[in-house]
């Protein structure tokens, strides 16, 4: 009996030691895989390798590194790789307005290579925000490279879901109408009257590219005193493209944890399920 106990103890000690070694190896491997910025003054080949690694393993925190690299170089190869990394960062949760700003700083530079502008247009086509659309709208009035211009119209269609001809004024008229709609929705949400707020929430999904502040204003109504408003806010977010945003799914998940009304809880659960489940 004593021998069995001793053997079991030794096996347990060996097993624990083995597990610790494995944990150290796995942790070390994970740390080694995390890309580290070489800094804006590194050799272009090292910077390009870092940007490609960011595309493969994007984290929102890398946006500052990419912005620093972009602001410190005019190397076309580096800038193209940076533009290609930005959509992955957007999908990982980086702020769309910051991404659009980083792209815009290069698109509006007179010395920017056409290859960089093409890559920037493609990047903006995936970063759904008013800032992205406005940058592209400016480009259709000023761009002289035929291929870049063609891609810019394609990007406007992809962002908006509209299919207007290659006519800058037609796109501007549509965008002006969207801005009027944004003002109307915001006004109704801020009015305070329950019926007005519900009308505003019902109109929110018609906003093709809502900015972050408008989305936050809608999300605040998930905690409104009236359950009808909370349910309408849930449906508004669920019926919009912003349901793909991690921050929106997180807001819905947090609201579901504190919701006490059965019908609102059911609405929250249905929207979260259709969007892929709780936010991580």
Rg? 25 Å
What is the helix/strand order?
Answer: HHHHHHHHHHHHHH
* Count of alpha and pi helical runs: 14
- What structural class results from the helix and strand content? mainly alpha
Helix content: over 70%
Strands, total number:
0
Mean pLDDT: 86
**Strand content range:** under 5%
Give the N-to-C terminal Cα separation. 49 Å
Poorly predicted ranges? 13-32
- Envelope shape: globular
Q: Tell me about the largest β-sheet.
A: none
Structure overview:
- The chain is mainly α and 280 residues long.
- It is built from 14 helices and no strands.
- The chain has helices spanning 2-33, 44-56, 62-71, 76-91, 96-107, 114-126, 130-142, 146-160, 168-191, 194-203, 212-220, 227-238, 246-258, 262-274.
- The chain is globular and about 60 Å long.
- The protein starts with a helix and ends in a 6-residue tail after the last helix.
- The model is unreliable at 13-32 (pLDDT under 50).
Spell out the blueprint of helices and strands.
Blueprint (H helix, E strand, L loop, with lengths): L1 H32 L10 H13 L5 H10 L4 H16 L4 H12 L6 H13 L3 H13 L3 H15 L7 H24 L2 H10 L8 H9 L6 H12 L7 H13 L3 H13 L6
Briefly say what this structure is.
The protein has 14 helices and no strands.
For the structure shown, list the relevant keywords.
about 280 residues; mainly alpha; about 75% helix
């Amino acid at each position: 009996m004593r021998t069995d106990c001793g053997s079991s103890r030794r096996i347990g000690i060996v097993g624990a030691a083995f597990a610790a070694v494995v944990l150290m190896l796995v942790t070390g491997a994970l740390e080694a895989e995390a890309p580290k910025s070489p800094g804006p003054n590194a050799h272009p080949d090292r910077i390009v390798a870092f940007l490609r690694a960011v595309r493969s393993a994007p984290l929102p925190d890398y946006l500052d590194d990419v912005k620093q690299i972009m602001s410190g170089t005019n190397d076309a190869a580096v800038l193209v790789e940076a533009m290609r990394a930005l959509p992955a960062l957007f999908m990982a949760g980086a702020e769309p307005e910051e991404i659009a700003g980083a792209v815009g700083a290069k698109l509006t530079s007179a010395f920017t290579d056409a290859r960089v502008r093409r890559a920037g247009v493609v990047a903006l086509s995936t970063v759904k925000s008013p800032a992205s659309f406005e940058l592209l709208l400016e480009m259709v009035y000023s761009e002289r490279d035929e291929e870049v211009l063609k891609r810019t119209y394609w990007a406007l269609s992809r962002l908006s879901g509209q299919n207007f001809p290659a006519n800058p004024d037609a796109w501007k008229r549509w965008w002006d109408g969207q801005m009027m709609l944004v003002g109307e929705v915001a006004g109704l949400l801020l009015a305070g009257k329950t019926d007005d707020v519900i009308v505003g929430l019902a109109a929110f999904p018609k906003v093709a590219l809502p900015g972050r502040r408008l989305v936050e204003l809608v999300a605040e109504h998930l905690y409104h005193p009236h359950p009808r408003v909370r349910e309408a806010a849930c449906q508004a977010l669920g019926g919009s493209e912003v349901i793909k945003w991690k921050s929106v799914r997180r807001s819905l998940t947090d609201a579901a944890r504190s919701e006490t009304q059965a019908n609102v809880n059911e609405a929250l659960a249905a929207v979260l399920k259709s969007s892929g489940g709780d936010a991580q």
